Amino acid sequence: MPKPKSAAFARIRAEVIRLVALIPEGKFTTYGSIAVHMNVMARHVAFVMSRLTEEESATLPWHRVVSADARISPKMDPLLAETQRARLEAEGMSINAAGFIQCDEAHFHSVGVRRSIRWSQQPD
């Protein structure tokens, strides 16, 4: 993994990875849900997710994070999107032809209160 651009980015990255690891099997969440919990923008979460290391990709349930409309991102590489679909379906989720998850009750919201920290400041 390349050296993080800043200490703030390193903390954001670590928190995204921590939250993704908490998503239970058979559930999904969105980039936006994670972002709201962290008090960052959804694109920050997407940026971190798009740059997972090979090891992180093999161990994290990255496939459980989808776009705001509960859809497999149409911007994703088609082979990766097919992998995501197969993994979600293997966990019991129904996905239509356009890539939308059909299980509203499977939406998992990050545990805990919304973070109100400034990522650019050192933690206490």
Note the run of SSEs as H and E.
HEHHHEH
Count of the separate structural domains: 1
- The 3D shape can be described as globular
What is the CATH topology assignment?
Answer: Arc Repressor Mutant, subunit A
Report on this structure.
With 124 residues, the protein is mainly α. The protein has a single domain (7-106), classed as Arc Repressor Mutant, subunit A. 41% of the residues lie in helices and 3% in strands. It has helices at residues 7-21, 31-38, 42-50, 54-59, 78-90, and strands at 29-30, 65-66. The chain has a two-stranded parallel ribbon with strand order 1-2. The model has no long low-confidence stretch (mean pLDDT 87).
Entry summary:
This protein has 124 residues and is mainly alpha-helical. It has a single domain, classed as Winged helix-like DNA-binding domain superfamily/Winged helix DNA-binding domain (Arc Repressor Mutant, subunit A, Orthogonal Bundle). The chain is 41% helix and 3% strand.
SSE topology:
Layout: H1 7-21, E1 29-30, H2 31-38, H3 42-50, H4 54-59, E2 65-66, H5 78-90
Parallel strand pairs: 1-2
Helix pairs in contact: 1-3, 2-3
Which key features would you list for this structure?
124 residues; mainly alpha; Arc Repressor Mutant, subunit A; two-stranded parallel sheet; 5 helices; globular
